């Protein structure tokens, strides 16, 4: 007996009931570990390349410090934010997303923006991008999305048809697509772009009170971008342009800096805000939740060895410290598993012990052995818990903050499906010249798409965001806006 129909199946041949929504406890999660299809997809996806990163393969890094400039202790008990003037050493890695380790720096692509703070309470990672949003909002779609950004299995060429087919069938991508196709889709350098935590996180203070937050790193160098023609020229002449620029700036003591701000939302607002605040394809209006200054990040030291520091650096949004908790964002919930798992596969079970990843505080736990265990492996100390030998024990005051969950465990989509308002707002914020450029860029990017139905479907999304936007793209592609959309 074989599977003669076209049903999607797991790797063990069982039919899949839902490939769009992970199983959560109620509509706002958290994600349940019983979703074996999700776990299998993410675990398999992390093992599809050896040995470079599956995504963000090419990057550049630098050391620096973070200095607190504003008192935020009423919002969080995180030790590294505990007093104005406090400095914490850090390491940052900038990257492109889709290309391989040898690809060009100046391609149109989001840029990874990953910061590791070596705090006195252990490491804390903010693993974001230079965009405040993302293409999808559920981790179960991530392997499929990244496959569209990679190479065709037969031709081994990039495949615009796959890219736009997926985007046109995933309207939640429209906001990020509009951002990516605009001027900020090709930053001039890593120094001249903002960074974002993208997801919603939770800060908890010493009294156990919490708020939802979003991180914004604002470049002090100003935002600068490259015209596509210039970017293409540089890609051919100096594909390592951004890597070189960052290294030289620091070598010449022109230290790049960013101001860190947060948006803060009261917990109860999450139930009434006009967009789902846990949907990573949406932003919070800064009119509703203004930016609050936190501190300043300065990069002042280059790596001594690229492989040891940049290539072996491992980041995860699950590398948390007391005072910082996660949110029910379904994309974030999947990343909490996938990133640590990717590092265990790519670098090894003991990746956290490498010098670039090792916390500046003592590590005390009962993890032992594993490949490449290069420290004393706990010597002869007690190796289980609980024990009668004064081994390290838990500290209940450092538990993650509790939050209520309810509902039926099932694959649930987000409640809010307005994927057009924010993308349209972004287009309308652009100057006439910026609008001309984004229309031309999208027309150029969509022209090679093989199927007309994909182009027409995507034109419909642009039209719903803004009629002028969709109409101009349709005209550039020699097509009509579909009548049913009008």
Q: Which terms would index this structure?
A:
single chain, about 475 residues, Catalase HpII,  Chain A, domain 1, ten-stranded antiparallel β-sheet, about 15% strand, oxidoreductase, catalase activity, Catalase_sf
Textual characterization of the structure:
There is one protein chain. This protein has helices at residues 36-46, 142-149, 160-169, 174-181, 228-237, 241-251, 306-311, 330-346, 421-429, 432-446, 452-465, 467-476; strands spanning 23-25, 59-68, 87-96, 111-119, 122-129, 195-196, 201-204, 210-219, 257-266, 292-301, 324-325, 409-411. It is α+β, with helices and mostly antiparallel strands. Strands 2, 3, 4, 5, 6, 7, 8, 9, 10 and 11 form a ten-stranded antiparallel sheet that branches. A two-stranded antiparallel ribbon has the order 1-12. Strand 4 and strand 5 form a beta hairpin. The radius of gyration is 23 Å and the shape is globular. The termini are far apart.
- Could you list the spans in which at least 5 consecutive residues all have pLDDT below 50? none
CATH architecture of the largest domain: Beta Barrel
Beta-strand level of the residues, as a percent range?
15-25%
Q: Estimate the global geometry from the Cα principal axes.
A: globular
What's the CATH topology label of the largest domain?
Catalase HpII,  Chain A, domain 1
- What is the CATH C level class of the largest domain, in words? Mainly Beta
Tally of structural domains: 2
């Amino acid at each position: 007996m074989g599977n003669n129909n076209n049903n999607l199946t797991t790797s063990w041949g069982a039919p899949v009931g839902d490939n769009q929504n992970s199983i959560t406890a109620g509509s706002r999660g958290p994600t349940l570990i019983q979703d074996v299809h999700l776990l299998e997809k993410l675990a398999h996806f992390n093992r599809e390349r050896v040995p470079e990163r599956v995504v963000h393969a090419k990057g550049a890094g630098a050391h620096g410090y973070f200095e607190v400039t504003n008192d935020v202790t009423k919002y969080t008990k995180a030790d590294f934010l505990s007093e104005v003037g406090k400095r914490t050493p850090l390491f940052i890695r900038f990257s492109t997303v889709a290309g391989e380790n040898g690809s060009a720096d100046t391609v149109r692509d989001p840029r990874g923006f990953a910061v590791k703070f070596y705090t006195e309470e252990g490491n804390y990672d903010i693993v974001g991008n230079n965009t405040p949003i993302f293409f999808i909002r559920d981790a179960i779609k991530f392997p499929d999305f990244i496959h569209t950004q990679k190479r065709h299995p037969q031709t081994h060429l990039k495949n615009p048809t796959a890219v736009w087919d997926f985007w046109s069938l995933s309207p939640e991508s429209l906001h990020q697509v509009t951002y990516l196709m605009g001027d900020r889709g090709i930053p001039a350098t890593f120094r001249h772009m903002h960074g974002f935590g993208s997801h919603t996180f939770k800060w908890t203070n010493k009294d156990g009170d919490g708020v939802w937050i979003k991180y914004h790193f604002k470049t002090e160098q100003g935002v600068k971008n490259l015209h596509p023609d210039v970017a293409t020229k540089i890609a051919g002449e100096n594909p390592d342009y951004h890597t070189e620029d960052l290294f030289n700036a620091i070598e010449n003591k022109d230290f790049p800096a960013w101001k860190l701000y947060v948006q803060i939302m009261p917990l109860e607002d999450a139930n009434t805000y006009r967009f789902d605040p846990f949907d990573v394809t949406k932003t919070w209006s800064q009119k509703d939740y203004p930016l609050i200054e936190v501190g300043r990040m300065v990069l002042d030291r280059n790596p001594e060895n690229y492989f040891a520091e940049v290539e072996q650096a491992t980041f995860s949004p699950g590398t948390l410290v007391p005072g910082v908790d996660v949110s029910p964002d379904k994309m974030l919930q999947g990343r909490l598993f996938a990133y640590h798992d990717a590092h265990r596969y790519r670098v090894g079970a003991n990746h956290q012990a490498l010098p670039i990843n090792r916390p500046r505080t003592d590590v005390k736990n009962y993890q032992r052995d594993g490949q490449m265990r290069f420290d004393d492996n706990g010597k002869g100390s007690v190796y289980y818990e609980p024990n009668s030998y004064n081994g390290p024990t838990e500290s209940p005051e450092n538990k993650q903050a509790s939050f209520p969950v309810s509902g039926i465990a099932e694959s649930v989509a987000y409640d809010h499906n307005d994927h057009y308002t924010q993308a349209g707002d972004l287009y309308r914020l652009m100057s006439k010249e910026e609008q001309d450029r984004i229309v031309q860029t999208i027309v150029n990017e969509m022209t090679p798409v093989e199927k007309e139905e994909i182009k027409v479907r995507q034109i419909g999304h642009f039209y719903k965001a803004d009629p002028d936007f969709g109409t101009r793209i349709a005209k550039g592609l020699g097509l009509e806006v579909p009548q049913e959309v009008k």
